[in-house]
Amino acid sequence: MDRPSLTAKMPLESGEFMHSREFLRRYERMPQVKKAELIEGIVYMGSPVSTNHAIPDGIIHGWLALYAAHNPSVQFMPNATVILDAENTVQPDALLRRLPEHGGRSRVNEDGYLAGPPELIVEVAASSASIDLRDKRRAYCRNGVREYLVWLVAEARLEWFCLEEDDYCPQLPDAQGVLHSRVFPGLQLPVAPLLAGDTAKVLATLTQNEVRVGKQSENSVNSKD
After folding, report:
1. I need a surface site. Which of 37, 165, 199, 209 has the fewest CB within 10 A?
2. Whose CA is closest to 121, among 103, 100, 101, 139?
């Protein structure tokens, strides 16, 4: 019978270098820790969550939850642990995944963790902009996360990256100041209302397009019959 290694009993500490398997073994033995990530092999421990992060985070969660509620082929997950590769086990603020039976590449493994790249990852960068725009961006790109949205709270700026071949390219808003997903039809984000914290207008942009998106989906299904 295999015995757990001595290192598995040790607590995680920021700056340590390790494999994803070792990281998860230690993380599972620290239920008091709410957020820890392994990014390019380095452990990062979460800091206390201020309102500067929590309020934008809540808006993003509501936006993705509403979209998923009206699109049964996709699934929204907040703060889920995602195993990307041997050196990257992350816990993004939010993600939207296409279910495997609808062509999605991520799956839930035998331990209940998400493994593989979700189609969209969102990070709210209140105090972690350098990590989110450098190390995480590199890891997400390399592992095939098709869209990556970063809300830079302090700078009042959004960066929405789309995977083109083997690199991320920034997506620009349309003439109305709205960003559109290339992966999820009808998922759009009005930049000014989001940065202003106007949740009602952000969600209204989705509900206004609900009928149109539903018709597109229906036509797509009928075209295959």
Report:
1. 165
2. 139
What backbone torsions phi and psi does residue 60 show, to the nearest 5 degrees? -60, -40
Nearest to 168 by CA among 138, 191, 189: 138
Phi/psi region, residue 84 (left: phi>0; alpha: psi -120 to 50; beta: rest), is alpha
Q: At what angle do helices 199-208 and 51-69 cross, to 10 degrees?
A: 20
Q: Which residues does residue 179 pair with via DSSP β-bridges, in sequence order?
A: 189
| Unique residue bearing structure tokens 């290192």 | 7
DSSP string, the chain: -----GGGGSPP-TT-B--HHHHHHHHHT-TT---EEEETTEEEEPPPPPHHHHHHHHHHHHHHHHHHHT-TTEEEEES--EEEETTEEE--SEEEEE-GGGT-S-EE-TTS-EES--SEEEEEESS-HHHIIIIIHHHHHHTT-SEEEEEETTTTEEEEEEEETTEEEEPPP-TTSEEE-SSSTT-EEEHHHHHTT-HHHHHHHHHHTHHHHHHHHHHHHHHH-
Cα–Cα distance, 37 to 45 (Å, whole number): 7
The CA distances from residue 165 to 88, 92, 98, 142, 146, in Å, are 21, 23, 20, 10, 10
* Global confidence as pTM: 0.87
